[in-house]
Amino acid sequence: MTPSLQPRTDSKPATAGGPELAIVLPTLNERDNLAPLVERIENALGPAGWEVLIVDDDSRDGTADEARRLSRTDPRVRVIQRIGRRGLSSAAIEGFCATAAPYVAVMDADHQHDPLLLVDMLAAVRGGEAEVAVASRFADGASMADWNRPDREKLSNLANTLARKLTGVDLSDPMSGFFLLPTATARALAPRLSGIGFKILLDLLATADTPLRVKDFPMNFSARRSGESKLDRAIALDFLAGLYDKSFGRIIPTRFALFGTVGALGVLVHMAILYGLILTVGTAFSWSQAIATFGAMTFNFWLNNWLTYRDKRLDTPDRLFWGWVSFIVACSIGAFANVAVATTMHDAGFHTFPAALVGIAIGSVWNYALSSRFVWGRY
Question: Against a cut of 0.90, is the pTM above it?
Answer without folding.
Answer: no
